[in-house]
Every structure is written in structure tokens, then in C-alpha cells.
Amino acid sequence: MELDKTFLQNSKNILGIVNITPDSFSGDGLFKKENKLSKLLDFAERNNIRNLDIGCASSKPGYENVSTQEELNRLNYFLSNVKGNFSLSIDTSNPIVAELALKNNFKILNDINGFEDEELITKVIEYQCNVIIVHRHPESKHLHEKMNFRNNLKEVLEHLEQKVSQLIDKGINKQNIFIDPGLGFGKFEQDSVDLLMNIKDLVDEIPVVVGYSRKKFIQKIEMNNKEIFEHCINSGVAFVRLHLTN
Fold it and tell me: In CATH, what number does 5-243 get?
């Protein structure tokens, strides 16, 4: 990935994706690839990208669950090879994996399952970390089940507001919460397009994180990567999750 001045001027708004997996949907898995991981971290540091989101279990369509031990092994691999001064987020739904990350100074817990696990919520309260609530339709049976929306923006916002209220009631500080509309997760492509193009309507008191990088639905948008990124920044998005590899 080459970064022009648009990205560089807004590097504080980039949440760089680091996949510590044997593979990923976009072929950038870095598990046991020390040289590639080192180059990615050097690239991030050189471009003043200080926020990284570390994922040790794939969530690509058709993914298979990995054991807790395997996810821990991958996180330990990252911890053994990380260098540089970064603020780290852990992308996991596993409370055991989350605790290892939080014990090692990770600042954000990013849960694609929308914090349905009570033990995960307990870890958030214990460590007083920030959280990213990724939207998941409350009636979906699994992450990639395509759900129908009558009004996608209104319903996604309502679902997220309900989840925010639930987490605040359980003891999580409102100031520690981010929301993510979950583009590509359980949504038809046009729904993801609509949500991204109208992302400003989600921006309010709770800061918004958006992840569109390398997802199939962006092929339906007549904008290049730079223009989509600018659209998100101009809409008031707090973090844009981006792949940092070519």
C-alpha cells in the first residue's frame, strides 16, 4: 500500500489491520512470517500509523473456529515479534485471548460478535479498556448470515444504540465505547454500500469505526480508495480500519 498525503495527514485516524493468521481472505496472514510482519510494522511506524488492530482468528466467509490455544499461540507470536511504539487493539471474541492482550498493554477490545459474552464484558470492566462494538443483527444465527433490513441505516443505528445502553448498564464507561456498523458482516452488498455512503448519519456522541478495506462490496462504489477514505474522514469517522499491505 502506498500512502499519499491524504492518508499521511490523517494517519491518526487509521487503525491498521494486522492479521496474525496462516491465511486471510485477502492473503495477508502474517503468522510465522517474521520478515513480513517486521516490514509491516516498519511501514506503519515510518508513516506515523500508531494504532494497530491485531487479529489472531479469521472471520472471513466460511471461516472455521480455531481453538483458544491456537489463538493464544498466534497472539504470543505477535507479542514476541512486535517492535515499535504502537497503541494496540485486539480483534477477538474470546475472553481468554482478550485477557492476555489486555495484560500486555492492549488498549482496545474489538469484538465482531457485539459483546454477547458476559465474561468478555467482565474483562472490559476489570481492565477499563476501550471497546469497539461491531454491529450484528440481533436475530442472526452466525456472523455471515445475510439479514434483511427495511431501513438499514435506522435499524443498524438502533441495534448499536441498544447495545451501547446495555454495556453502560453493565458498568462500561460510555467514554470508552466506539461503534462499528459491521460492513460486510451479515449484510447484502447494497446494504453495506448504503451504510458506508451515509456513514455521517451514524456519527454522533459515540465515535465511529468503519472497516471497508478489501471487502467485495466496495466494487459497487464509484470511488477509489483515497476518495472512500476522504469520505469517511470528512464524515467524522474516528478510525478507518485499513490493510497496510499491498
Answer: 3.20.20.20
| Strand ordering across the sheet containing 108-111 | 177-180, 130-134, 108-111, 87-91, 51-55, 14-19, 239-243, 209-211
Residues 142 and 131: their CA atoms lie apart, in Å, by: 21
Q: What is the mean pLDDT of residues 210-219?
A: 93
Q: What is the DSSP string of the chain?
A: ----HHHHHTGGGEEEEEE-SS--TTS---TT-HHHHHHHHHHHHHTT--EEEEE-S--STT--PPPHHHHHHHHHHHHHH--S--EEEEE-S-HHHHHHHHHTT--EEEETT-S--HHHHHHHHHHT-EEEEE---TT-SSTT-----SSHHHHHHHHHHHHHHHHHHTT--GGGEEEE--TTSSS-HHHHHHHHHTGGGG-SSS-BEEE-TT-GGGGGSSS-HHHHHHHHHHTT-SEEEEE---
Q: Which one is predicted more confidently, 29 or 244?
A: 244
In this prediction the pTM is 0.91
